[in-house]
Design a protein that fits this description.
OB fold (Dihydrolipoamide Acetyltransferase, E2P), alpha+beta, 2 domains, 9 helices, six-stranded mixed beta sheet
């Protein structure tokens, strides 16, 4: 096991494109860290730099306290698990699991013991003599993981390992990988674009965008206290709604006002955000998670109302998409304006069905409001 430290690491290609910029990140010994972000954000490049498969152009990388900049991939003692599994089709499961050990000159008896131990851990004992083509996708992924585990490396590097699996199997494999990491205690860096994987697997999550680290912290902190609009819009499913609102004084406190919306901000929220006083009479970006909205019984008491454009029925809950007026500004990772009309998403109980075309009145849990500077997009 080992700690891994990035010190102002950058990767710039000959054409000038910066895939990673000034990355400072410390992964503790035994930690499970998830690197998450949209395609092209630099997360896989960062992972490959740890493995030595990409050369750094700036900064320093330490593995287990040793400067790794000049080390060959072989000498870094880390093991990668790829999206494509990268199994040898002509080899059996046992030969695939033991390949890394054999290539490093391990004795046959040692290889046999390690392969059996790993197969037992991954429930592959019955498949040791089969070829990869005879296995399911989940079994092939376990073989790829087994090859990494058998080596007993200082760190596991996993690059989108579940993206080729169906949704049901991904859910199963998420728990298997998290359980294996906890059991082995090996430092693990896991790359994904799937924020559900990030939220359910990592001790900490590092959110990246355009080669830069946006926020680092435990999953719950990123969900409850996102540092900027990008993190707020990327973490959480369904994605957060954003509205441009005016902050006005109200009874010694403050309220957020927009077309069709007036929301009194809780005193504790105002007190916790001393900068908010300087925004009185100015616009801010208000963030509302769909689950912070609920159906209102009293129209006069409702914080806002809108006409339902369409509904996604998830069984226990419904995601209602509402048109509420031009004040809505969706700046999530993937803007979902349809035919130029802004939309608000509300995740509500499915006990009473919602239908397209009906007018829906909503309450807002004011304690779960997020506020951002509209220019810098940082949280207030």
């Amino acid at each position: 096991m080992a700690s891994i430290v990035f010190e102002r690491v950058g990767k710039r290609y000959p054409d000038g494109f910066a895939a990673v910029r000034d990355l400072n990140l410390e992964i503790a010994d035994g930690e499970f860290l998830v690197l998450v972000g949209p395609s092209g954000c630099g997360k896989s490049t960062a992972l490959r730099m740890i493995a030595g498969l990409e050369e750094m152009t700036e900064g320093r990388l330490y593995i287990d306290g040793v400067l790794a900049n000049g080390l060959s991939p072989r000498d870094r003692d880390v093991a990668m698990v790829f999206q494509s599994y990268a199994l040898y089709p002509h080899m059996t499961v046992a030969e695939n699991i033991g390949f890394g050990l054999a290539s490093r000159g391990a004795r046959k008896a040692e290889i046999a013991v390690r392969v059996r131990e790993t197969a037992r851990l991954l429930e592959l004992e019955e498949h040791l003599h089969r070829k990869p083509a005879q296995l399911s996708g989940g079994q092939r992924q376990r073989v790829a993981m087994g090859r990494a585990i058998a080596r007993r490396p200082k760190a596991f590097l996993m690059d989108e390992p579940l993206s080729n699996l169906d949704a049901r199997l991904r859910g199963h494999m998420r728990s298997e990988i998290a359980g294996l990491q906890e059991m082995t205690g090996v430092t693990t860096i896991y790359v994904t674009h799937d924020q559900i994987e990030a939220m359910t697997m990592g001790d900490r999550v590092a959110v990246m965008r355009s080669g830069e680290l946006q926020q680092l912290g435990p999953p719950r902190v990123l969900y409850d206290r996102p540092g900027n609009v990008f993190v707020a819009g990327f973490i959480g499913a369904p994605t957060m709604n954003f509205l441009r609102v005016d902050i006005v004084a109200e009874n010694g406190g403050a309220a957020a006002v927009a077309e069709g919306l007036r929301l009194t901000l809780p005193a504790e929220l105002v007190a916790a955000k001393p900068k908010l006083a300087s925004y009185l009479g100015r616009k801010v970006m208000l963030g509302l998670r769909p689950e912070a909205l609920s159906r209102a019984g009293d129209e006069a008491a409702a914080a806002l109302a809108g006409r339902v454009a369409f509904v996604e029925d998830f069984g226990a809950t419904q995601l209602a998409h509402l048109d509420i007026g031009a004040s809505l500004s969706d700046v999530a990772v993937e803007p979902d304006e349809i035919a130029g009309r802004p939309r608000l998403r509300a995740l509500i109980d499915a006990t009473t069905p919602v239908r397209s075309g009906e007018r829906l009145r909503l309450n807002i849990d004011a304690a779960r409001v997020h506020l951002f500077d509209p220019e810098s997009e940082y949280a207030l």
